[in-house]
Every structure is written in C-alpha cells, then in structure tokens.
Amino acid sequence: MSESNEDKLRELLQEAMPPLGQTEPQRDLWPAMLRRLDEHPVRVAWFDWALLALLGVSLGFFPEVIPVLLYHL
Questions:
Q1: Residue 47 pLDDT grade (very low, low, confident, very high; cuts 50, 70, 90)
Q2: For the chain, what are the domain ranges?
Q3: What is the pTM of this model?
C-alpha cells in the first residue's frame, strides 16, 4: 500500500468515526427514564398467567420435578 493510499484511508476513517472527546451525556438521563417508566404501567399478558397456571398444575401432579427445577435455578 502506498503512502498516499494510507493517508486517504486514514482521512476516511477519521471522517467515519466520531471524536472520542465527549463520553458523558450532555444531560442527566435518569429523570427522563423514570418518567418513561411511569408512563407505561407494567401489564402481564393473559398468556403469562396461563403458563403460570399450567406450571402450578404440573407441579401439583408431578411434585418430583420440584427439586429438578430448583437445581436449575
């Protein structure tokens, strides 16, 4: 690779990559995150409740599975 190609490649890379001088955000993001979390309350879908009920019924019929599940936690 000739020196002119290296210089051109270096210029292209410098244009493509932003400078690393400013690593901190310009404002505090935590209050905005708290507002966003408050906007959307946590909702659990019916399918999740159905899976939880199925798990409870399964553990009632097959209690020997409980130690296996606890082991994998």
A1: very high
A2: 46-73
A3: 0.44
